[in-house]
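Practice problem 4.
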C-alpha cells in the first residue's frame, strides 16, 4: 500500500478543506431557504409571506390562496429538494465509478429506459396520470441500467469506465430510437409524453413524493455506505484491489444506488438535465474529489441548485411559469461551461 493511497482513503480531512465544505453547506442551506420561500410566494399570482405562513400553520380549505400554497407550491418545493438531492448524488456516483467527469444519470440509460416505459404506458396501457407514470418509469430505468451493466461486463470482462460508457451510449441510442418510433405513430401519446419529457416539478402532488421517497432514501443510505470503497476505486482498479477494496460489489452497489436515485427522480419529475452533472462539479471545485466530503455536500448543493433554477424560471417568465427542465438548462448550461473552463476543475 503506497503512502499516497493510504492518505487518500484513511487520512483525516484537512482543516482547510473541511472549513470550505462547511461554508459551502451553509451557503447552500441559505439558498435553499430563500428559494423555498420564493417558491411558496412567487408564481402566476404572488402570495404574501404572511398568507403563506397562515396556510402552513392554520390551513383553511376554503381559502383559495391556502389551496395554492398547500396543494401546489409546497409539494413542488419538497419534490425539488428530494429530486435535487437524488439527481446530484446519482451524478456524483456515476462520475466516480466511471471515472468520467462528464457522466450523469443518463449514462446508464436511466433517462432512456424511463422514457420508453412512460411511452409504452401512455400509448398501449392508457396511463394518463403522473402517479401512473411513476412505476413504469422506475421499472424502465432499472431494466435499462441492468442491461447496460450486463453488456458492459459481458464475456467475463471487467466493467471498465470505457466499456460502461460505450454500453450506455449504445443502449440509450437503441431505446431512444424505439421510443421515437412509437411517438411518431401515436399522436395522442406524443402530446401527453412531451409534458413529462421536458422535466417539471409542477403538478406533482404529495402522493408522488410519498411514492418515490423510500427508493431515494435507500439510495442515499447505500451511497454513503460505499464512500470508502469508491474512494479507493477512484485511484484505479489495481490500486483499489491492493488496498483491499472489493471493487465488484462496490460497483454493483453503486449501480443499484444510481438506479434507485435517478430512476425515482426521473419517474417523478421527468428527465432533468444538468443537476447530476453540474452539482458534483461545483462541490468538487470547492472541496476536492474526496467522497467523504463530496457526497454529503452534493446532498445539499444539488437541491439548492434545482430550487434556485425553478424559482428563477418563474421570476423571468412572470406571470407565466417556465418548465423546470428548461430553467435548469438555461441556468446550468453557462454555469457548467464556466466550471469546465476553470483551471481548478480542469485539473481534477
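Answer key:
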Amino acid at each position: 500500500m503506497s503512502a499516497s493511497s493510504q492518505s487518500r482513503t484513511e487520512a483525516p480531512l484537512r482543516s482547510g478543506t473541511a472549513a470550505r465544505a462547511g461554508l459551502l453547506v451553509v451557503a447552500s442551506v441559505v439558498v435553499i431557504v430563500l428559494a423555498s420561500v420564493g417558491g411558496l410566494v412567487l408564481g402566476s399570482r404572488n402570495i404574501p409571506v404572511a398568507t403563506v405562513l397562515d396556510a402552513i400553520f392554520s390551513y383553511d380549505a376554503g381559502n383559495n390562496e391556502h389551496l395554492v400554497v398547500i396543494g401546489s407550491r409546497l409539494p413542488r418545493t419538497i419534490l425539488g429538494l428530494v429530486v435535487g438531492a437524488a439527481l446530484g448524488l446519482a451524478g456524483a456516483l456515476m462520475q466516480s465509478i466511471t471515472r468520467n467527469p462528464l457522466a450523469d444519470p443518463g449514462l446508464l440509460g436511466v433517462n432512456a429506459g424511463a422514457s420508453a416505459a412512460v411511452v409504452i404506458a401512455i400509448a398501449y396501457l392508457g396511463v394518463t396520470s403522473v402517479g401512473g407514470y411513476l412505476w413504469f418509469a422506475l421499472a424502465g430505468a432499472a431494466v435499462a441500467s441492468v442491461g447496460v451493466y450486463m453488456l458492459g461486463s459481458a464475456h467475463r470482462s471487467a466493467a471498465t469506465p470505457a466499456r460502461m460508457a460505450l454500453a450506455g451510449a449504445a443502449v440509450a441510442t437503441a431505446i431512444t430510437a424505439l421510443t421515437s418510433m412509437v411517438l411518431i405513430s401515436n399522436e395522442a401519446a406524443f402530446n401527453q409524453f412531451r409534458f413529462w419529457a421536458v422535466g417539471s416539478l409542477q403538478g406533482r402532488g404529495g402522493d408522488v413524493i410519498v411514492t418515490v421517497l423510500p427508493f431515494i432514501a435507500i439510495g442515499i443510505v447505500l451511497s454513503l455506505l460505499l464512500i470508502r470503497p469508491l474512494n479507493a476505486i477512484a485511484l484505479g482498479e489495481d490500486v483499489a484491489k491492493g488496498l483491499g477494496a472489493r471493487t465488484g460489489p462496490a460497483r454493483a452497489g453503486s449501480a443499484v444506488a444510481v438506479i434507485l436515485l435517478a430512476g425515482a427522480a426521473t419517474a417523478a419529475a421527468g428527465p432533468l438535465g444538468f443537476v447530476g452533472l453540474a452539482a458534483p462539479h461545483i462541490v468538487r471545485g470547492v472541496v476536492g474529489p474526496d467522497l467523504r466530503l463530496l457526497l454529503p455536500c452534493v446532498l445539499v448543493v444539488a437541491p439548492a441548485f434545482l430550487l434556485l433554477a425553478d424559482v428563477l424560471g418563474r421570476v423571468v417568465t412572470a406571470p407565466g411559469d417556465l418548465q423546470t427542465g428548461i430553467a435548469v438548462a438555461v441556468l446550468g448550461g453557462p454555469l457548467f461551461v464556466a466550471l469546465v473552463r476553470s483551471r481548478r476543475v480542469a485539473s481534477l
